[in-house]
Structures are given as structure tokens and as C-alpha cells.
Amino acid sequence: MEKIKSTILLFFLVSCKITPGNNLFDPNSPTSLGLLLLSADPVVTMEFSTNRVQPGGVIYVSTNHDFTAKSEGLRLPVSGSGVSPISQVIPRSRFLYEVRMKPTITSGKFSIDLKDYYLNESLLVNPENFEFEIDSQPPVLEVRTGNGIDISELQSGFLDIISNEDIVWEGKLSQVTLSGTAKNSLVVSDMIVSSRNIRLLFAGNPNSNGGILTVSFSGVKDRASNSQGIVMVPVKVFAFKSGPNMNVARRSCVGIELDDGRRLVLGGKAKKEILINGNGTLSHSEFYNSALKQFVQGPDMVYRRQEFDAVKLLDGRIFAVGGIGGKIGAVNDGLTSTEVYDPIANTWVEGPQLSIPRLFHKMTVLPNGDVLVVGGMSPYKPIQSVGAVELVHITNNPATMTAEVVGNLDDPRGKHVQIFSQATGKVIIIGGERSDAFGPLSNDFTPKALDSIEVYDINTKTLSKSTAKLYKRFNHFVHGLENGEILIFGGMNSRFDDAQPVLRAQIYNPTTDTIRDHKNLLFGREWGSSFVFSYGKDQLIVAGGLEYRTGNGSSFDSIHDTESWSESINRFYMTSRSLNARWDGCDIRYSSTGGGMILGGRIGDILGNTEEYSFE
Asked: FRET label pair with 426: which of 57, 345, 512, 535, CA 20 to 30 Å apart?
């Protein structure tokens, strides 16, 4: 009889066409049918209800094999772990089993080795192995961009809420509610739900001043059925809102947020009819009181300054350098002077002199606290670019600070950008305008936009030229990315009739010294007059500036529209409008909360008004 069975099996396997790639453990496969003819059991299939389960939770197993006939029932041997999380296997029918977990095991990944175990009983099992996880943590929901969005994303767009793990959710509108100061008449009109993303679409209007929008979700569970009940996701909704007028209208100023939260605006150029200390170039400073929403006068600088630069030192003091101006009187001159503001003493004290006067220069505070002063322009025509790079050694006493010339740029420049690269220990000096004087007359100079990048090594105190070629530009912007690369965008490519804004952004890698093209800006912006604020997790908003609108670059206009850039979606996109289309003002960036304030500038005349981009 056994010989007849073997002959029939051989005939069956030879006569049947077995398609390559078929699952040999499928009960309907020729192999399984052959095993059936031999009176062997077919392939045992098992389907598990989930691979994630709560402590003390349940996984259901459905199978085509009756394990109730066996004295030991369905056995699920857990391998690779000290203690099995399975407490009991209960048959609910001949082909359905309830697998209960021990409540004392609250986490861990486990593997059930089915193949080797059942092979001893001459059973083929599909799957051969099953992995599952004990999960006691409910899903975490957050805004894709962190915790902040621009108001335009509520007015005309959508909001993405992401989960840190797969969710199981009905996704009914009744399961979502909105509240908070930013809500106004806003409602959720529709949703698109995927395994880890909830996209909310809106109707109605948010509060035009922004604020906090709290999105509450009910019934959201993960695949292990963990739930927080009602999950509340707070969202900071950033918007432009009118701020108070400064006491003195100004352009070409500098704004800085102090460590104690006070916000300071200093220097600049006043309106023609305003003279302070005998001149329209200002030594005047004022503080913005965000609680009272008003400006109060601060201490005057030692020097009147415009087109200067100022940075916050590591100890919280303010260091102002160069520009055009002077002390009391009607005469303006190029400045080599420096000065330090002590926020505790509330006084300005003169510091060391630089080797050469400069304006439109840039400064970087180094990790040891010293300040690198790079480039700039001479104050009067014929305009000459400054190549000298100086290192100011910072001490507790401004009288003991010193300035050291550490080298010269290969391309003297001003109106450039620079940023410190933590990964390489270098200051990256990017683009700018080079102007060379060739005679004594006021027009005897030739300006040009630069395509070069230079590097200052803080360890060797040496300058070198990068091999990477920038798309030539000046009055542009720079932003350090989380991965250590540098985003470069905006600016102008010429000062002549063929001047055009640079729409193409680029990304420079300081580690590999390479540069690549990135997405385009929506608007070309220049003159060091746009304002870049961070908000949310990885977003920037760009506002204001000048855009040249004609083919020959002879006509321009200031820009009302704003645009944002997001590191997560890696592109520029249209956002809300600023209240004033201004340029040549200054800004204060709110480091603690994101956003900031735009102050002064020009729209024809010099402005005294301000506006905030914030959620407060």
C-alpha cells in the first residue's frame, strides 16, 4: 500500500506544473496536496491579529489546524528572551485561539519560532517565525513642523499632525475640536487620515493676531490599543501684528534681544528734520517693553553710528563696531571705534580701536568669546572694499580689550554674509560686493558681486579660499541647517542697469567644501533689508526688502508678500503678508520664543513704526 501511495505522489508531482515563486506552504499547493495523499497533515497556517500588544493584552491567532485535539493545545515557543510574555493560550474554537500576555512584562520585542518547534511533529508551518512587541506607550501626536505655523496655513491651507507610530482611528470630524486664542471662527472642514499622519483642512477665519490653537483628538489608539484618551496638541500660530512706534524713527539700525528678555534697538539714521547730538546719525537707543507694548529710552552709545554691526557677547554684553558717524557734532566720518554695553550697569564704554574704518562689515562671536570682524567698505567715494580681517580679544574690561589683524581676504568685500560652522571650527565668509578704486575722483571705482567663499580657521587663525563657486550675490542671507550645511539665499547680482535679484538658493557643505543649487525663492530680495525669523521646528519666514521688477534693473519696489522655508519640506512657499512693505530697517529676533520684531526702515520716508511676527 505504501508503495502505491509513493507511486501516486511521484506521478502527481511530475504531472503538475509548479510555478516558480509559489508558496510551498500554501495548503492548496501541489506539495500540500501531495502530503494530503500521503495522509500527512497539510501546511499549518497561522494569522496573528496584531504584532503590537499592551501588557496583559491579547493577540488572537486563527489557524487551519485543530490544536484542541492535542493534550498540550497550541504551543507558541518564545525564543531569544529570558522570560516569555505569554501567560495563557485559550482556545475559543477549534481554529481560533486567544493568547494572553503577562501584565508584569511592560516592554520588549519577542520572537515565536514556529518552524523548528513543529518540525519535530512533521508539520510545516506558515509563517515560520512571528515577531511581536509589548508596547505600553500611547501614540504621541505633534505638528509636523514642531509646534509653530504661519497663520496662512490656517487661512488657506492645511495642518499636518504626525504620530510617532501607526495609529488606529475612525477619523470622524466629531472626534476633533479646536480651542485657544487663535481659533476665532475656525473649524475643521475635512480630514485625510493615513497610518501616521492626520491632515486637517480648515474653514472660517483664525484670529488675525495669531496666538495659540489647541487641537484636541479623541479615540486615537495605536496598534496595541494604547490611548491617551483626549490628546491635546498646542500649536503656536505666528502672525504679523502692529507694534508701537519707536520714540525716534530710524533706518540702518541694529536690534538685539538681551539675555534678560529686554529688546534693544540702537543707532541708525533718523529723518532729515531730526537732529540728535547735532546730527541725524544716531547714538540714541531704546528698549521695547513687550509687556507694556511700548518703547522707553535707553542709554546713548558713545558714538553716533549707522551702517555698523553689533553682536551679543557670550556674557550677554553688546559689542558695537564701526559704521559712519562720530561723537557730538555735525560731521560724520568712518569709524574705527568699538564700544560695549553692560546691561547690568546700563552703560556704554568705549573699547579698542580697529586698524581701519569700515561699514557694511560682518562680525562673528567665536566659541572662546572673541569676535571676528570681516571686510566692509570705506566710508566715502571712491568706495574701496576692506580686506583686513581683525580679531577682537574680549575681556571683562573694555579698556583691556585688544584688536589683532589676523590676515587679509583674497577678495576684499562688504555686504557679504558669514556664519560659524561648528562641525569644522571655521567661519564661512560668503559672497558680497567687491569695490576697487582706480583713481581719486568720487566715481573712480568699480563694484562687482562676488562668487567666492573664504574660510577662517579659528584653530590656526588662517584664511583660505574655498574651491566652491557661489552664484554671485551680495546683500543676501544665510541660515545654518541641522545637518551642518549652510543655506544661502537672496541678494543681488550687480549694481548696474542689468541688476537682477538672485532667486536661486544654494546649499554649501563646509565639511566637503562643495556647493549645490537649491529651490528658488518666490521673490528676489536684497539690500540687507529683508527680515528672517525662525518659527516652529525648522521654519524661516522672509519678509520685506526690495525687488527689481524690470528687465534692466532700473525700477524696484519694496515687497509686501512674505515667504517661508521649511527644512522638512525643503522648499520656499508663500505665506502671509507683512503689514508694511519696508526695507533698510532692522530686526530683533526672539531667540526664546521664535519670531521677532521689524523696526523702522523706509517706504519712501524713514519709518518709526514697528511690527511683530509672533504668536504672543
From this structure: 535
C-alpha cell at 502: 538672485
DSSP output for 257-275: E-TTS-EEEE--B--TT--
Residue pair 108/120 in contact (Cβ under 8 Å)? The answer is no
CATH of 141-238, one of 3.50.50.60, 2.60.40.1220, 2.30.30.40, 3.30.1120.10: 2.60.40.1220
Cell of 505: 538658493
**Which of 352, 409, 365, 364 has its CA nearest to residue 386?**
409
What are φ and ψ of residue 495, in 5° steps?
-110, 5
Give the highest mean pLDDT range of 41-55, 144-158, 406-420.
Answer: 406-420
Cβ contact 437:380 at 8 Å: no
Report how far residue 421's alpha carbon sits from residue 397's, in angstroms, rounded to the nearest whole number.
28
Q: Do domains 43-134 and 141-238 have the same CATH topology?
A: yes
Q: Which residues, other chains included, contact 194 with Cβ-Cβ below 8 Å and sequence gap of 6+?
A: none
Cα–Cα distance, 61 to 99 (Å, whole number): 7
Q: What are phi and psi for residue 31, nearest 5 degrees? A: -65, -45
| Distance (Å, whole) CA 194 – CA 175 | 16
Q: pTM, whole model, 2 decimals?
A: 0.82
HSE-CB for 587 with a 13 A CA cutoff = 26
CA distance 501 to 548: 6
Dist. CA 339–CA 335, nearest whole Å: 11
DSSP string, 328-397: SSS--EE---EEEEETTTTEEEE-PPPSS--BS-EEEE-TTS-EEEE--B-SSSSP-B--EEEEEE--SS
CB 340 within 8 A of CB 351: yes
Give pLDDT tens digits for 27-77. Answer: 444 444 444 444 445 789 999 999 999 999 999 999 998 989 888 889 898
pLDDT tens, position by position, 578-595: 999 999 999 999 988 899
What are the extents of the domains in the chain? 43-134, 141-238
d(CA 65, CA 46): 9
Q: Say if strands 125-126 and 44-48 run parallel, antiparallel, or are unpaired.
A: parallel
CA distances in angstroms from 138 to 174, 192, 307, listed in the order given: 21, 21, 54
- Rounded CA separation 493/509 (Å): 22
For residue 20, what pLDDT band results from cuts at 50, 70 and 90? very low
- Quote the radius of gyration of the chain (alpha carbons, Å): 34
CB 529 within 8 A of CB 551: no
**Which 3 state secondary structure label does DSSP give 593?**
coil
Identify whether the C-beta of residue 601 lies closer than 8 Å to the C-beta of residue 587. Answer: no
Which whole number is the average pLDDT over 284-302? 93
pLDDT of residue 549: 54
What Cα–Cα distance (Å) separates residue 514 from each residue in 370, 423, 431, 485, 511?
28, 15, 15, 10, 8
Q: Which of 610, 616, 603 is nearest to 288 (CA)?
A: 610
> Which architecture, in CATH terms, is 43-134?
Sandwich (2.60)
Is the separation of the CB atoms in 73 and 94 below 8 Å?
A: no
Instruction: Single out the residue of 600, 597, 588, 524 nearest to residue 558, CA to CA.
Output: 524
- Averaged pLDDT, 145-164: 91
Phi, psi of 111 (to 5 degrees): -130, 130
